[in-house]
From TrEMBL:
Its cofactor is Zn(2+). One of its GO terms (cellular component) is extracellular space. It comes from the Eukaryota. GO terms for molecular function: metallocarboxypeptidase activity; zinc ion binding. The keyword Signal applies. This is Peptidase M14 domain-containing protein. InterPro entries: CARBOXYPEPT_ZN_1, CARBOXYPEPT_ZN_2, CPB2, M14A-like_propep, M14A_act_pep, Peptidase_M14.
Length: 425
């Protein structure tokens, strides 16, 4: 009886205090300016991680905010929301469990029916995969070392070249510029596997690889990616140490030389959108920029893979101006979105970055466009917030196939346009 009573009291107390024992993601929609101010304050003053929007400055009335709240900030944050009568909804009740699911000793459980490509992989595993891919495909795959990260990890680009046609054009794809967007490196691996398996099997893949080489950088930000596996799953930036601040990391997608560090980026090292000390101050962005500068005559398509929100974006993000071939890019993105809808019944928004989301200067896609790569896109893969950055491994194949549909649509269009130009100069 005594134990029963203790148990009862325990349950009662536990309910009364409603203390969280898990890290959570909350969805909060501020409906007044006061709410907006409180939320901006919460996301900067307490140990939380803003998932959406990327920075507190973009929090605005009637737009959903996704906020990661660790256990130890949970009570303070929820009390504050209650005090200001701001309603919230628990988007993910237990992110610890989801993270555990994504990292389970790389999921090598032999009973699991998922393949290598339907799991997330540690940085070490990805390096090993690069090596294996090279060994298994002599003659068609090359590995190019384009530079190294701040912490001296190698930046390897895979070059898929399925034939020796002269004057071949090329497509560039980079993944993992933002560390916590794990579906992005998973897509780069998926793309390589798909290309090598379906060349001469699938008509579209064959046509693309017959007409262009593909350069793939699976992890643009290896230090950050490693950090998300070992220390902080919510990390976004690289890991470079600032000369002026104790805060670590630069947002590599604000570090390129395209209206660098204007509205939409920050010169404050402690923010998630810190632009760095100067354009290309980071070894990762410099390596990519150097490589593309020296290959700009062959590279026709630039693709950068991110998550989440399901969008197909094109320049500009650094300005509200329209690019010279805006209509052309809009039509391509629209067709890609239509194909995704047709084959996978999923909705992707599309448009120029600045008008579809918000101003984001210093991005790699705008920089590549200004370099002369006129077909430049940024993809935001699944989902729209249900799992956000913690997309379960079981969703990888759908998410990657959707993105692959978009890549194919765009590459085939560009090939057609190039042929038409050759015939009628
Ligand atoms: Zn991103």
């Amino acid at each position: 009886m005594k134990t029963l009573l203790t148990l009862f009291v325990f349950i009662f107390l536990d309910k009364g205090h409603s203390t969280e024992t898990h890290d959570q993601v909350l969805s909060i929609t501020p409906t007044t300016q006061e709410h907006v101010d409180v939320l901006k304050n919460v996301s900067t003053q307490y140990k939380t991680a803003l998932w959406q929007p990327v920075s507190p400055q973009y929090i605005k009335q009637d737009a959903q905010v996704h906020l990661f709240v660790p256990t130890n900030s949970s009570k303070t944050v929820k009390d504050l929301l209650q005090k200001h009568t701001i309603a919230h909804e628990v988007l993910l009740a237990n992110t610890n469990e989801l993270i555990e699911m994504q990292t389970r000793i790389n999921n090598t459980d032999p009973r699991s029916s998922s393949t290598f490509y339907e799991r997330y992989h540690s940085l070490e595993d990805i390096y090993e995969w690069i090596n294996r891919t090279l060994q298994d495909n002599p003659g068609t795959v090359k590995v190019i070392l384009i530079g190294s990260s701040y912490e001296k990890r190698p930046l390897y680009v895979l070059k898929l070249s399925l034939n020796d046609r002269p004057d071949k054009k090329a497509m560039w794809i980079d993944c993992g510029i933002h560390a916590r967007e794990w579906i992005s490196p998973a897509f780069c691996l998926w793309f390589v596997k798909n290309s090598l398996s379906f060349y001469k099997q699938n008509q579209d893949i064959t046509k693309i690889l017959d007409n262009m080489d593909v350069y793939i950088l699976p992890v643009l930000n290896p230090d950050g990616y490693k950090y998300t596996w070992t220390m902080d799953r919510m990390w976004r930036k690289n890991r470079s140490v600032s000369k002026t601040s104790a805060c670590i990391g630069v947002d590599l997608n604000r570090n390129f030389d395209a209206n660098w560090c204007t509205e939409g980026a920050s010169s404050e090292p402690c923010t998630e959108i810190y632009c760095g000390a100067f354009p290309e101050s980071e070894s990762e962005s410099q390596a990519v920029a150097d490589f593309l500068r020296s290959h700009k005559d062959s590279v026709q398509i630039y693709l950068s893979i991110h998550s989440y929100s399901q969008m197909l974006l094109f320049p500009y993000s650094c300005s509200l101006n329209e690019v010279e071939n805006h209509r052309e890019l809009l039509e391509m993105a629209q067709e890609a979105a239509q194909n995704i809808r047709r084959y996978y019944r999923n909705t992707y928004k599309y448009g120029s970055g600045a008008k579809t989301i918000y101003l984001a200067p210093g991005g790699s896609d705008d920089w590549a466009y200004n370099l002369g790569i006129k077909y430049s896109f940024t993809f935001e893969l699944q989902d729209r917030g249900q799992y956000g950055f913690l997309l379960p491994p079981s969703h990888i194949s759908r998410a990657c196939n959707e993105a692959l549909t978009a890549v194919k649509t765009i590459a085939l269009k560009v090939i057609e346009k190039t042929k038409a130009k050759k015939i009628s100069p």
